Amino acid sequence: MILLPRFVRVLAIQRVLIRHGFDELILSTPAFRSVGFLLYLLPWNWRRRQYLPRAQRLRAVLEDLGPLFVKFGQILSTRRDLLNDEFAGELAKLQDHVPPFPGRQARAICEKAYGQPLDRMFAAFDENPLASASIAQVHAARLLDGREVIVKVVRPNLRQTIDQDIRLMYLLADAVERLWPRGRRLNPSIVVAEFEKTLLDELDMMREAANCSQLRRNFADSDRMYVPEVFWDFTRENVLVMERVSGLHIADVAGLARAGIDLKSLAEQGVELFFTQVFRDHFFHADVHPGNLFILPSEGGQPPRFAPVDFGIMGSLSEFDQRYLAENFSAFLNRDYRRVAELHVESGWVPAHTRVDEFEFAIRAVCEPIFDRPMKDISVGNLLLRLFQTAQRFEMEILPQLLLLQKTLVNVEGIGRQLYPDLDLWRAARPSLEKFMLERVGVRRLFSAFTATVPHWLDRLPELPMLTVEVLDQLKSGRLKVQTTDPKLDEIRLEIRNFQRRMVLALIGTGCVVCTAILLSVKGSATTQVGPLPLGVWLVGALGALAAFLSLKPRAKRGHR
After folding, report:
1. How many secondary structure helices (H) and strands (E) does the chain include?
2. How many CB atoms neighbour CB 390 within 10 A?
3. Contact in structure between 380 and 409 (CB atoms under 8 Å)
4. Are 526 and 509 in contact (CB under 8 A)?
5. Beta bridge partners of 240
């Protein structure tokens, strides 16, 4: 009975694949080309049908298979290091809106999460969803104190569907790796693993609420970005309640213009806010698209503010990655390709054996044609993509955090150019980069590092006099020894010398055995006999026996008696 739902799901997927002619795609691969005639023996192919191009077919299949596969297509569309432009562009068309589930079901999920009727939690709850996505859908509500909120409810039974479909995706990825020549290089199993992790993270509304709270704290004093408040008392693992934001959609360019907003300034501020998240906070919103970004118009003398929503996917960079990324951007701005190549090697993004000069030439070949154009025409996202593709030839391991950054930067750049087509992203990003580099190497950085370690020093300071006295006492009594080498290394060296000695003695013993055999075969009157054997045999044999004895005798380790 446990296998029955999975079998039914397999049949449903198979029916969708057949409807879109995926059997033709499979039988056209090199692994099945020899049995391609089977395509014409299948009953559903007896009537000639017209199919869409392959990329469009893949998008249609994902849409028909449901929300989970739509989400997979959205994430896969960001992996332009794996897909060609045709497939990546087509998958990027997958919309974030999917058919909603009934509002009464959303109400039942919330009541089960709270353990009481919704009338006791909210003054009003609209069962008609505001928006519906692949993971959850959003409903408008009003708290008992009158504040307007949104309630984000995870789709019912989604975890069971995920478990079933993820297993099938792993099987499909394994088949692609084995049957398609390029499959192993594309690593579809790794893509599915990343997808599974992203999905499980997005299912947890407590995690998303924590992401929102962190971003709100980072920009608490900002007059350019407003992050909605999370209501923790109403938030559960599958229900998230946060402040409702009312503003203009970032894609409503005409509406923004009618509101008197300077689109050029808005686009540049958006880019600077993104780089501020990356380099100041090393924590950035990684799911930026027009559906997740609003603009709050000017009011009370306050400038327009960005208001992001949907915090399920966030990115972070370590200080190590931050520094090397900032230096890479600075080197690109100065067209110092040698430094870019050196930074990739120093950071470990490419193997240490990579020839810097060859990598430099490859980077120059990518960048020079791009930088010869006006700066406003340069796509930073496409530049990073080309660099990733070039670095893969030098065995660069694509790091998930860098891919997430590249995908978000492409979206930010796209939104910025939609607002202001002549946006110079390099110019907008430079202040954040220069500020970060100044803080990293300036006096302020030294002072902050000093103040961070002062509490540790003060904690150990009372112990310092006693430790000093103990060290002096040990030094005076001769009990203090300075060890400059690792004793393990000495043992290894001793074992190597012992092995060499035994090898020499074993060779001497072998030589003596050979000599003994030769002497036994010599017959002549000059040979002195001692008992039954010649004297030379006795001498050489004794020498061989001694050598064999010494080679087998164990040598005492240093330091033992």
Report:
1. 22, 12
2. 16
3. yes
4. no
5. 152
